[in-house]
User: Fold this.
Amino acid sequence: MNTKVVIAGVELKNPVMTASGTFGSGMEYGEFVDLNKLGAVVTKGVSNVAWPGNPTPRVAEVTGGMLNAIGLQNPGIDVFIERDIPFLKKYDTKIIVNVCGHSVEEYLETVDKLSDQPVDMLEINVSCPNVKAGAIQFGQDPKVLESVTKEIKAHAKQPVIMKLSPNVTSIKDMAMAAEAGGADAVSLINTLIGMKIDIYRKQFVLANKTGGFSGPAVKPVAIRMVYEASHAVSIPVIGMGGIASGEDAIEFMMAGASAISVGTMNFAEPRTTEMVIKGIEQYMESQGMTDIKDIVRL
Assistant:
């Protein structure tokens, strides 16, 4: 049974990867998950310098998922290169580094430092607030997205995946803008914006008031957006948003995803990635499929 997929010239042993921010760099999950079985590990967001993140409380459970306002807390690119990459290189899996920044210059500084590192792809988080544009996200304006993609592509030595925000009027326009800017692939969806209020304490549950909503409840929205994006561009689409099983992953692939990422469910069941891989194989076997390319795209 062949489960190999190719994204931007990079071959993955299977289409299952981790969603950025839900798996660290794999260290926290090493005793639960065999990283060798994963198609790729997508790291937590990495910036040019250490980011402290948002004040607490910054995580809340809600019906059908969770809210988070972590604020992309991370120790910065230098620590990542020294600590995380050597750890991941011990395993037979592809390494995709998620890059974040508050300005184009911050993105480029991180991308440049990764240029000579043994990582396979870069995933650019364009849901970061652009400080030079009044904190509007890079991924909410097609022209800005196309421009930042072009600049990053001019510097990057690895294939570039642009991670798209669902908090836009037209996901098709954003996917097309990323492709026009030279992106090698797009991934979606990032979190929806949500809020929770404690009616007894009469205050917001998150210190940040709003947070990113993720989990099983967002899957129908994610499926629709992956379908729209994949029919608007010719580059590969990586789908994510509420995946909890092999059946969920197959649904995303039928909607047009070439690969998928598992996120929030890693918190509820650390072995979800392995369970999804097994679920895909069981589905293929039940359908008499010998190659993952046999999965129908609608």
About this structure: The radius of gyration is 18 Å.
